[in-house]
Amino acid sequence: MAERVLRGVAAAAGLALGPVWVHQGDAPAPAASSAAGDPGAERRRFQEAVAAVDRDLERLQAGADPQAREILGAHRLMLADPELHNLVEAGIARGLGAEAAVQEATEQLAALLAGLDDPYLRERAADVRDVGRRLVAALAGRAVGLRLEAPAVVVARDLAPTDTIGVDRRLLLGIVTEQGGPTSHTAILARSWGIPAVVGVPGVLEQVQDGMTVAVDGDAGAVVLEPAPETVQRLEERLRAQAEARAREQAEAGLPAETPDGRRVELAGNAKVPGDVAAAVERGAEAIGLLRSEFLFMGRSAPPDEEEQYQAYAEALRLAGGRRVIIRTLDIGGDKGVPYLGLPREENPFLGVRALRLCFRRPDLFQTQLRALLRAGVHGRLAVMFPMVSTLDDLRQARAALEEARAALAAAGIPHALAPEVGIMIEVPSAALIAHHLAREVDFFSIGTNDLVQYTLAVDRGHPELTGLYQPSHPAVLRLIDEVVRAAHGAGKWVGVCGEMAGDPLGALLLLGLGVDELSMSPPALPAVRRLVRAVPFREAEALARQALACSTAAEVEALVRPVLERVAAG
Question: What is d(CA 366, CA 403) in angstroms, rounded to the nearest whole number?
Answer without folding.
Answer: 12
